[in-house]
Amino acid sequence: MFKINFLPLQQLNNIGPMQRLFTTIIATVLCMTAAIAQLPILRNFTTLDYKAGTQNWAIDQADNGTMFFANNNGMLTYDGDKWKVWPMPNFTNVRWVQYDKATQRIYVAATNEFGYFKGDPKSHQYRYVSISSRLPVQYKTFGEIWKILVFGKNRAFQAKNQVFIVGRNGRVKTVNVPHRIENATAIDGKLYISCIECTYEYTSGRLVPLPGLQELKGKAVRAMLPHDGKTLIVTASDGLYLYDGKSCWPYVLDISKALADNQVFCAAATGQYIAFGTVRAGLIVKELATGRNYFFNNITGLSNNTVLSLKFDKMGNMWLGLDNGISYIMPAAPCRDLLGANASIGTGYASLLQGNRLYLGTNQGLYVIPYPLPNNIDQTKPNYVNGISGQIWNISNIDGSLLCGCDQGAYTIEGNSATHIASTQGTWGFLPIMGHKGYVLSCDYNGFVILKQENGGYTVQNRVSGINFSTGGCIADTDGSLWMSHWQRGVYHFRLSSDLTRIEQLQYFNKGNQLPADDNNLVCKIDGQVYISSADGFRRYNPTTRRLEKAKNIDSIFNEYGVSLRIIETQQGDLWAYKPGYLAIAHRLAGGRYQIDRFTMANIVDRLQMSLGHPGSLGPNLTLMNYENGFYLLNNHFAATRQSADVFIRSIYSTNRQDTLLYSNYPGPQETSIKIPHSLNSLRIEYVLPEYQEEKAVDYSYYLEGYDEHWSAPSTATSKEYTQLPKGSYTFHVKAHDRINDVTREAAFKIRVLPAWYETWWAYLLYLALVAVAIAQLLKYMKRRTDQKVAQVQMAKEQELRAKEAQFQIEEEKKEKELIKLRNEHLEIELKHKSSELADSTMNLVRKNDMLQEIDMQMGQLAAEITKEKNKAAAAKIIRDVRRSIQRNITDDDNWEKFEENFNLVYNNFLDKLVAQFPLLKLNDRKLCAYLKMELSSKEMAALLNTSVRSVETARYRLRKKLNLEQGENLTNFIKNFDTKQSGT
What we know:
single chain; Methylamine Dehydrogenase, Chain H; 8-stranded antiparallel beta sheet; 37% strand
């Protein structure tokens, strides 16, 4: 690769015109043949992203990193997280936007309107202030303002035929230009106005034509840029010119024709680049140090080919305002896109530089492009290699022969053609066999195949027995043995037999056998030695012990665990390390030490495709990495600049009812504290660190001092809500880690939640007064209550005394009544008893009288018979009748009913209750129960029942059964207590 050194402009200015032209042409030819066209990565933003108009006419950036765009719908702002549109009062297109650091204003220009936005502390929003309203009536319809320029202490607003100059005192002066203005530029405090007819300098209040610019007459100037002590003049369609203040001459570059053919609309320059925005061909960039050109257009990934504005930001990257959309190009990034985002060759898997051809294997097939790539505007499209199609897995150069493994089998490659090796199937890769020149070990889907080189090509020699599967991870050790990793089965170490037909000395390592897991173990080579990469680090084989031993020296380089690292060693001995979400390079230092860089490539790590791919090399310093849309070209020794904006609090909203804006950050000195009414104490705090290279590239942690106990876990969220914060002082800390630049920034913001109205000092005074009044009223009330209670107690005592007296009287009367009742009951009982005795006596007397009368009558008859002495037999009969009569009276039951009635009267219906419960009792049973109740002895009962005592005992036994008495239960007690039990029941 050649390096282009341009002839210094001072020397170029001192040679003649023909020599100047010849030197320029030589430089152009060299640039076209030597440079490599790799494209910086870019991001496109569409109207769906920023939700505003299509066209973006100008771009600027504030100190805090916020971007401003002159958009058809107004002033558009973007801080890396949120877009917002600020319309003009007359709702016209904004044609220019300019941030002024001294006044912290954002000047804007539109149709028949120009002025500035500035932050309003009351509304916490941008407030527009019109300058054009100060113009006299005759100048207020001036059309479009296309530029805003600062020269000296003045600011110029360029219209089509006028320039309005605003001094420090705010007065507006109108400068009428005799011709239509094509461009206005401010350089070194001077204002230049370019027309097709003439170019003027505005000085001392008048327009003075610049000398030596006759060549520009009739040409439309689009930009005038300071360049190496001179002025670079960019025309729309007539190329570039250099101007030294006295004369002007063409400045011919290899891109001059492309600029002329595609009509330049705008231009910008830094110390490294000159960028030209065109109408038809997108952006054309010249890198000054190398002469390399970059072309960004629809083919290479730009969303639109018309560039209306461009701006280099603080990181050295470029913002493009397009006719439809916005793009962000990152030449300061450490990697390039080999062919551009729109190359459409598929996902990259393998690459190989063979002479002046670069082969690229993707999921779509095998492509080839010339190398170095032509450095011109015409996109170099890769050519399809004929004879091979489908998924490409590997491209290998073995002894000068190019072999390609793909889903269809193994192929040999010659130029733009591929030849299938007969009898091969899906092939992962190839490996030369140590000690067997001309033989290659091919790894296919089913195991290993030996390929033999003959007649300029390769044929299948035989299939190797012993392993019927394989993967692409197969490498040779220094002793000729082979290592193979399988993504699910572990790692195999083996040798080929001398006749190359079978596997010998096979060792198998897996989970439980010297490896932490079966899956995702990888084999790699570092400094000629084979290592096994696993989830817990690296291992190396010890041939003496035939065991895998931890390789702490390699572990210490990356200190990354959890997932196996894929290692690629560069030609200079540097180590690329990759796993999902992680990409780093370890630079090899003297003494075998390494210095790791893991952040330089952080913005591309999520796009890479390396699980089955094979990164390539374009020399000692350049690595080709596979990604989802082709190939990235990485500079192994890129010196990243750790730059980043500061994190800041973007806005604070109250969410109590609906979003109420309490604070907003706008360019300029900002408050670092805020007081919040208690009624608005539910907050949403928004924060951001402007980072434009990658979406969600910043991790944030927050901590509300006085409320939170510790820092939050990092996340990409850019806001935090707090609900119902108590009164008090808090400090909100936010820490932002820019993963791309490995920079951490921190900001703090003080928040004081004011007390509620009922918590203020005057409220407390009011409370004190109210308490004093309440105490006084309470004392009066308590005195009144005390007096009332004393009176109530006195009255209650009197009432209680009267009540007690009444109660005593009632109780006395009640006792008297109870006494009378008891007397009556006693008399009634006595009466019943006497009545019973009387009845018994009466009944007995009646029976005795009846019996005696009958005996008397019978005795009379007996006496008569005896006197007659006629018949002794008759007398004997009478005596028998008398005895029978006496016996009958003894057992006569005619008066039992009367006895039972009197008995029930005396003993509270005892017999009725007994019969009711025991209806099967017979007359003698009832009599026996009555006599038992009267507590008569067995002898007395035998006399009354006209039976023997033994018969009475027998009758008692039978009665127990009829009364269902348990064994051991006393019959007499049962009868005595029967009426008592009945009353209890």
